[in-house]
Design brief:
By secondary structure, the protein is an alpha/beta fold. Helix content is 37%, strand content 19%. The protein contains 22 helices and 20 strands. Helix 5 (191-200) packs across helix 6 (205-236) and helix 7 packs antiparallel against helix 9. The chain binds adenosine-5'-diphosphate (ADP) and magnesium ion. Magnesium ion binds next to helix 9.
Length: 690
């Protein structure tokens, strides 16, 4: 089987099917063979409805009486239906999946797989997965079946059919991974062909499982090798060296409005040393919200300016860029007054966002090198922004930017040079992701908050207790002339006005707290409207800000000391942690309420939030609970689609790491492995931080 052959060569694929397949990125035989089953079900364990016992079950039947019920109080939807077989009928329910009501053909039979349980005094099948009986391959003898996902217009059945046609050829699939030193025993001749065969046509769960393990290893190996190659290539680039000037930095540090924390000192030192090199720095600065990353970046930018070169700081929103600019402007003004006149060169700084007036002149000044440190948004990376000598780039909240956007900024350095890069994030990247996806990049960690910070108390609170437990505390906050964030969830539904929940909630709160001014903020507002609201909130002209998660990123209002997150069950840990980081930024104690609908026990996620304010700990927990795909999705790395591997499998990662490392070190040439080389290329584009 030639995996690189076009998909048309598969029996049963005509021009029309080929077109459909190409639309979902299945262009070659290999792409098809790597479309692995979503899961395996054993349909021999199907039970009759009359025999159901609580727990995970598979039933076979028809569904009817589908309807969507809106629960007004929570603006959630519930889709109900009744499943029948020859022996009886049961109720089924999905939460927040209104499309379910239209998904089924009442005349056809489905397998339903879900949890059969007692809820509110009735037995029901909760959130079952459904597969058309007809889509389950009839060819297999055992009841143990691979289940494929439908991909837009392509039904699962199609995958069964096409793969079944290829079945005799699986044995000819060539090996892929190098049999070089450091390889684990299971990487051997024929192992790949066997793994692919067994993942599509397993006889039993064990076969499917070991096939998956092999393919996961393959995926990790590719990813890690790509990352290592990236690092190697990065080392070959030339950057502008920015020598450390001890007297200058000492003077700066001495005259800061505060004492640097130990972690800030260490991180600054690591960065300043990297900047001295003529190979580009590629460093990630990880620090929890409020850990003081900005000042570390500013000290590094000062070193660039002192050496006569430019720095750009890219921030994800105008609010954030403006805030950085104002803080840094103040800081450098103060330092200028404190340092001996004429001796050092402090950065001349400027703000460049879409809303900046006099953009033309500013861009001219940047081009001529009259500005040393530009802080901005996407406006920084437009084609007409040129630098005189961009030596250093700082990207704040790096996960907010795609690879392409970051690249665009980095290309603005002088010809034949690459800028030093500092990426900053408050969403810690677990170690396993650092090793794989980010290729063992250099990391500085701020694991120490500046002194004097008040702890944030976090409490899970069922909505029904709002009136008794929450409102009085809100009143207290308002009485102290402090401020409150109220976060609403917005359900993305077709034709729904996403701003509505925010408006309804704001109106309700305004009635309950007439003494306060309630403001709203949501994604549908224009950037300058948003800025105006944020500004009013920062100046305490608004006391309660009802908002969607648009406030999540970096906004700093130290007088806001309470945050309430409605429908908190629906957020990921990283996001909850980011949201909570909006408060506790001043010298007053702060609190965070996680409102739940109160059904059942709070999730592990919320309980972890209640227990811990350590972002690093929460990130590890998040990785365990959700898996890296989800986390990565949240990090807008849609490009990286790990199909099989589980990045929390540290043993497999370390094996693949050794294997890849010895491969690179040894006398091996990637060109001798053309298929591997092609696959690695794809990963290399994703796994780069620059
Ligand atoms: P983040 O890491 O979330 O970006 P910032 O850089 O915005 O944090 O810093 C948060 C606040 O803490 C800012 O107001 C900053 O001036 C202040 N800060 C930073 N470092 C220190 C320190 N060592 N001591 C006291 N305050 C500090
Ligand atoms: Mg920040």
């Amino acid at each position: 089987m030639d995996l690189l052959a076009p998909i048309e060569e598969v029996k049963g694929v005509g021009p029309k099917t080929a077109e459909l397949l190409r639309r979902v990125n299945i262009c070659t035989v290999g792409d098809l063979v790597y479309c692995l089953p979503r899961l395996y079900e054993n349909y021999q364990t199907t039970v009759n409805i009359e025999d159901l016992r609580p727990g995970k079950v598979i039933i076979r039947g028809k569904i009817s009486d589908l309807r969507v019920v809106r629960t007004n109080r929570r603006r959630l939807t519930m889709t109900q239906g009744v499943i029948r077989d020859n022996t009886g009928a049961i109720r089924t329910i999905w939460f927040n999946q209104p499309y379910r009501a239209k998904q089924f053909d009442e005349k056809r039979e489905y397998y339903f797989t879900g949890k059969y349980e007692l809820k509110n005094g009735r037995y029901q099948l909760t959130s079952p997965a459904a597969t058309l009986v007809q889509d389950v391959a009839s060819t297999a003898m055992s009841g143990f079946q691979p289940i494929y996902s439908a991909k837009s217009a392509i039904k699962p059945q199609m995958f069964h059919k096409l793969l079944d046609g290829l079945r005799p050829e699986f044995a000819n699939i060539p090996d892929l991974l190098p049999f070089t030193k450091g390889k684990p025993d299971f990487v051997k001749e024929g192992a790949r062909a066997e793994a692919l065969y067994n993942s599509h046509f397993p006889e039993n769960p064990e076969e499917a499982e070991s096939a998956r393990e092999y393919l996961a290893y393959e995926e990790l190996f590719e990813l890690i090798l790509a990352a290592k190659l990236n690092k190697q290539e990065n080392q070959r680039l030339k950057s502008i060296p920015l020598p450390f000037v001890a007297e200058f930095t000492q003077n700066l540090v001495k005259n800061l409005p505060f004492r640097l924390t130990g972690a800030q000192r260490r991180a600054t030192w690591e960065i300043l040393q990297n900047l001295e090199q003529n190979t580009p720095m590629n460093r990630l600065l990880q620090g929890d919200v409020g850990s003081g990353k900005t000042i570390v970046a500013a000290l590094a930018a000062a070193q660039a300016a002192q050496n006569g070169h430019q720095t750009a700081l890219l921030a994800p929103t105008a609010i954030l860029a403006t805030q950085h600019f104002e803080d840094l402007e103040k800081l450098f003004r103060r330092l200028k007054r404190a340092l001996p006149a004429g001796k050092f060169h402090l950065p001349r700084i400027a703000l460049l966002t879409g809303a900046t007036r006099g953009k033309r002149q500013l861009k001219e000044a940047i081009k001529q090198g009259k500005i040393d440190f530009v802080i901005g948004t996407h406006a920084l990376i437009t084609d007409d922004t040129h630098f005189c000598s961009l030596a250093f780039c700082i990207i704040d909240e790096q996960h907010r930017f795609g690879v392409g956007q970051r690249q665009k900024l980095l290309l603005k350095s002088p010809p034949d040079t690459a800028p030093h890069l500092l990426s900053m994030t408050a969403t810690p990247i677990p170690r396993s992701l650092q090793l794989t996806v980010f290729g063992d990049l250099d990391v500085s960690i701020l694991n120490e908050l500046p002194p004097g910070r008040q702890p944030i108390t976090t409490k899970i609170l069922p909505e029904i207790h709002q009136k008794a437990d929450l409102y009085p505390q809100m009143r207290e906050i308002l009485a102290k002339n402090q401020q409150i964030y109220w976060i609403c969830q917005v359900i993305e539904e077709k034709n729904a006005n996403t701003a509505t929940p925010v408006k309804i909630q704001a109106k309700k709160l305004q009635e309950i707290f007439p003494q306060a001014k309630v403001g709203i903020l949501h994604g549908k507002m224009k950037p300058d409207e948003k800025d105006a609201i944020m500004e009013a909130f920062a100046q305490n002209k608004i006391q309660i800000l009802v908002s969607t998660t648009v406030v999540e990123v970096g906004v700093n209002v130290p007088n806001a000391n309470m945050i309430i997150i409605q429908d908190s069950e629906n957020y990921g840990l990283a996001q909850l942690h980011q949201l909570r980081g909006r408060v506790g930024r001043g010298d007053q104690p702060a609190s965070c309420f996680l409102l739940t609908t109160g059904e059942g026990r709070p999730s592990k996620r919320l309980r972890e939030m209640e227990k811990s304010t350590d972002g690093f700990h929460l990130a590890e927990v998040d990785l365990q609970i959700r898996g890296p795909g989800e986390i990565y999705g949240a990090m807008q790395h849609g490009e990286l689609n790990l199909q099989i591997a589980n990045l929390s499998d540290t043993a497999l990662i370390s094996q693949a790491g050794n294997h890849a490392e010895t491969f690179i070190r040894g006398e091996n040439h990637l060109e001798d492995y053309p298929e591997l080389a092609a696959r690695i290329k794809k990963y290399q584009q994703i796994t780069t931080l620059n």
